[in-house]
Amino acid sequence: TPENMTTEVVAMVPSESAYEQVCPFSSRVNNRTGDCVRICPEGTFVSRECTPCPVGEFSANPEQITCDRCPLGRTTRSTGSKARDSCICQVGYESPNISTACTSCLAGQYRNITLDLCTSCTYAKFSAVRGAESCELCRDNSWSPQGSNSPSKCICNPGFYLLGDVCKECEAGSWCTDGNQTACASSLSPNGTKTRDECLCGV
Predict the structure, then answer these.
(1) Which position among 26, 46, 52, 68 has the lowest Cβ density within 10 Å, counted as fewest Cβ atoms?
(2) Rounded to whole angstroms, how far apart are CA atoms 165 and 140?
(3) Residue 8 pLDDT grade (very low, low, confident, very high; cuts 50, 70, 90)
(4) pLDDT in tens, 37-85
(5) 57-58 and 68-69: which strand pairing?
(6) pTM of the model
(7) Closest to 83 measured CA to CA, from 122, 117, 53, 115
(8) How many other C-beta atoms lie within 10 A of the C-beta of residue 44?
């Protein structure tokens, strides 16, 4: 090199791998600022820190600025959902998959957030409307078969009869089944008699 010629020294830019060694775990270099920034995983969005997606939203990719909303009529079971498939039907509705429209549960069924599909009401419960989140209990001292869709399906227990909207204990001198009270041939039967065979013979 001639003596009157100068040489410009260009600073070496560290490679991406060198930055990865400098930045803490779960962070990377911001290409614009050169600062280390946190890598927010799926199920979160970038705020001042990695924040879980709220219920009803999801993020399928890391470092999303915002989370994506579930399709109309769908939600998620919890915060931090990572995929569109996490979007389930609102309570009281069901669908076999994310591509199929949600339909309401039938009367006699229910679906809460923990269930995948509509389920029949259990013994001594009923749901009288479509799209129920839960089933209602029958009146005291009564029962109903599985899948009951009306309070009229609630039948007084043996030994009780229906008076208005209340199941009352069967009166002495009668027997009660299926919510009906029938007089015994003898008046010696005790309260709560369940069958005609329990009626006592007169003296």
Answers:
(1) 26
(2) 10
(3) very low
(4) 667 888 888 777 788 999 999 999 887 888 999 999 999 999 999 999 9
(5) antiparallel
(6) 0.70
(7) 53
(8) 22
